[in-house]
Design goal:
This protein is α+β, with helices and mostly antiparallel strands. It has 2 domains: 138 residues, OB fold (Dihydrolipoamide Acetyltransferase, E2P), CATH 2.40.50; 97 residues, Nucleic acid-binding proteins (OB fold (Dihydrolipoamide Acetyltransferase, E2P)), CATH 2.40.50. Helix content is 20%, strand content 33%. The chain is built from 5 helices and 16 strands. Strands 9, 10, 11, 12, 13, 14, 15 and 16 form an 8-stranded mixed beta sheet that branches. Helix 3 runs parallel beside helix 4.
Amino acid sequence: MKRIWRGWYLLVLMAGCMHQELVTEVVDGDTFRLASGETVRIIGINTPEISEPGGDIAKDIATQMLLGKKVRLQRDVRNKDDYNRLLRYVYIGDRFINAELARLGYAEARFYPPDTLRMKEIVEAERAAIRGRRGLWSFSVFQMPDTSGIVMRDTGTVAVSNAVVSWREASKFYNQQRTVEGKIVAANNTGKVCFLNFDRDWKEHFTAVIFAGDYDKFPRNPEDHYLNRTVRVTGLIKEYKGKPEIVVKSPTQIQIIK
């Protein structure tokens, strides 16, 4: 029965790829609009926001690929996200745009279960970009996945240091690799993202973020495992909505201080 259901599901997905839509506007590196008025979020990847380092470059690359082109769209399990955007894999001819953006180094792999149908292909494309230091990886714009086994050189655009800084000082080191120390006093797992907060005023202060696509690497219920622990979190400090955060892709990035 499972085999029959999966075969039917794949047929539905393939049928969903047949219709072509015209791209009339590119919003940023992973979002565009169609002539129908719908907005599409390219799934399985993430690009910097326009206000972030590399965001304008990622948008330019996506614009070159997509604007004025007719695309075929394939859905996974979910149809739309919380912002009413269509969640889709995108094709132009035989080009798989999601993987191509990752392969060129202008997008990082990021998945939110249950939409993981093309995860292996996109992750492999991301790793090829890291090995070749392509696109934004040459400027250390993205957080390095620990599982790649690849050590990035210092390009001069991002400072690299083993110095430990307090979570209160994290905002001084945007776009730099640092180890941030503090106690996790509040945590929240939405199912898609786990937030490990170092202050109860989490909207203003440093947060470590684990995305659902990486949950299987971490202890079960990371929001409970790390709560009330003093930790050191190592990674690239990025600004998100006016506050500092580190995206944690591997448990080796979090050291519990006993």
